[in-house]
Amino acid sequence: xxxxxAFCDEDLAKALTALADDGDATAALDLIAGTPDVxxxxxxxSVLGAGGVPRLELLRELAQTxxxxxxxxxxxxxxxxxxxxxxxxxxxxxxxxxxRIIAQQALVAEARxxxxxAALVDQDDAVxxxxxxxxxxxxxxxxxxxxxxxxxxxxxxxxxxxxxARHLVGHxxxxxxxxxxxxxxxxxxxxxxxxxxxxxxxxxLAHIEGCVDGLLRGNVLGRAWRAYRYLGDPDVLRETxxxxxxxxxxxxxxxxxxxxxxxxxxFAALYHQAGDDGRxxxxxxxxxxxxxxxxxxxxxxxxxxxxxxxxxxxxTGC
Length: 318
Description:
Elements lengths: L9 H13 L3 H8 L4 H14 L4 H10 L4 H20 L4 H28 L5 H9 L9 H12 L4 H9 L9 H12 L10 H15 L4 H12 L2 H15 L11 H14 L3 H11 L14 H11 L6
Helix pairs in contact: 1-2, 1-3, 2-5, 3-5, 4-5, 5-6, 5-7, 6-7, 7-8, 7-9, 9-11, 10-11, 11-12, 11-13, 11-14, 14-15, 15-16
């Protein structure tokens, strides 16, 4: 699945290296437990969850050893969630697809249990619900489970970036929604947000999903034509430009927000796919030189695509 690296957080970088490379979860657990800001906490948990996949057995042991520690269940749940999506993304034959589905469902069930335990230990924490809203899209216990988890996250902490981005994906056609539902959700959730707020990126993410929807149907030529036509639609461009201006107009108010870099990369990815280097440039300047996984991965290797976008926009250090 990959690790989102669009952040500027030295403590998170150190904790990620210790966990993923050295198999030492101490710094990761201390960082989760010691992060009161819910927006940073959501990012920390997501990044460390993806980084913890190779250390899944260790994290299982740690959660069972001190079951009263909510951060242990939270890190385990986020890691199981990342592992579940990684299984889904793997390629293979039809028989392997069947085995992947079974494996994914088992990981989702285990993640659900761990995240609900984390939520039980700390009932004021929205992050377990944010993680849960994302992982149960793949295998919900009942049809409203993803929406219920998302609503709970929003009650505890309105405006969580990742909770919204994940829930937006749940409205797509591949999860039995539609492009219209995706756009309706994005528009409703962006309405009333102040300039500079990262959630303005929901508009870019929604239109990327609209483009991807066309890539999932028909033959190669038909898919390419639908994607080209979608990204060249004047109405799509006008709505995207308006949201991009709102994100850029914050006057630095949200520069320190943990998800601002990811939000700018959402617009950069859309404009890059549309071949508009000029519009991509201000977002690439603010989005950093390390990629988010989504939405870049829809179109290829995130690191290569971000580097190519930065070169085309005339930025150095790519």
